[in-house]
Amino acid sequence: MSTAAAIRPGxxxxxxxxxxxxxxxxxxxxxxxxxxxxxxPELRALASHYAAKGGALWCAERAGxxxxxxxxxxxxxGAWELCKMYAAVSERGSGxxxxxxxxxxxxxxAQGASGMKLWTDTRFTRAHGFYEKHSYLRAGPIRAxxxxxxxxxxxxxxxxxxxxxxxxxTAAAASAETRLSLVLRDCVEDGASxxxxxxxxxxxxRAFWHRTAxxxxxxxxxxxxxxxxxxxxxxxxxxxxxxxxxPHRAEVKKLLIHPAARRRGVARRLMREAEAxxxxxxxxxxxxxxxxxxxxxxxxxxxxxxxxGRVANYALLPDGSLCTAVMFGKHLPIRPG
Length: 337
Prior knowledge:
The chain is an alpha+beta fold and 337 residues long. It folds into 2 domains: 6-158, Aminopeptidase (3-Layer(aba) Sandwich); 163-284, Aminopeptidase, CATH 3.40.630. The protein is 31% helix and 33% strand. The protein has helices at residues 15-26, 36-39, 46-52, 96-110, 125-133, 170-175, 177-189, 202-217, 266-280, 295-302; strands at 6-9, 56-62, 65-76, 79-87, 115-121, 137-138, 143-144, 152-159, 163-168, 221-228, 231-239, 249-257, 285-291, 306-316, 322-331. The strands form 2 sheets. Strands 1, 2, 3, 4, 5, 6, 7 and 8 form an 8-stranded mixed β-sheet that branches. It has a 7-stranded mixed β-sheet with strand order 9-10-11-12-13-15-14, with helices on both faces. A hairpin with a 7-residue loop joins strand 7 and strand 8 (152-159).
């Protein structure tokens, strides 16, 4: 496409274009029924609908035709909802959807929002991939609308500002594969010694995170992700799969911070979350290893980890040389049962 679609505030008189756009998008999926007056009457006056809720609406046009839309509104407690996010088939791959999303997120941030939430039909797999690419992860339960389309929806969410670290459940871990694969790939390319060597294929990275999500589901692993200003920027794991005679111990693994997000407090926040969750899981001793002289070594020392030994020629670095591993341990306070 030679020019980008124009985006402007949505109006009530865009109703016909909005209805056509939503109808076309729903028609891409089986058994999605469009009955405007019975189920989505707000489409008749959508700008007024969101204005009354303290929100905002945008419309994208090309040659006088509505080709995209998005809305947002406050939910309370610092959260805003992303609503009515649609782009015409002809605009897929043009960047329009990302532009619309950025407008909605900017509006929420300007109003002091701490996070965004959204609901998306479980059938809308293309939308799921789009949201996951933009650092939204599955959050909360699935909901059923009991409508003509028998709609069942996934919830997605992400924090918008600052450094936020969260433990991921199985659904969130599975939906994090796209972003965590990017973090892993770029860390490996940047020279991190984290089991892989460059170039790291995207398929290999995704397979690793898919296996990790299975470990989370089995209760053998705690997985954490961190956002920096709305983008997934780091991760760490706590491996709970210890031998029967070591139920008090766990291993911290794969602390990964995207190169563009370093020295912003992301790693420190992740480690604090991981240590607290490990203690809550009944683990009183954590262990880990890292390359001698790495930034991670200094971080662990500053967090109170104690060096327990060194092993020369422990692992290959991306440049083919061998690194000495520094082993660390940390005793956690035992929480009363």
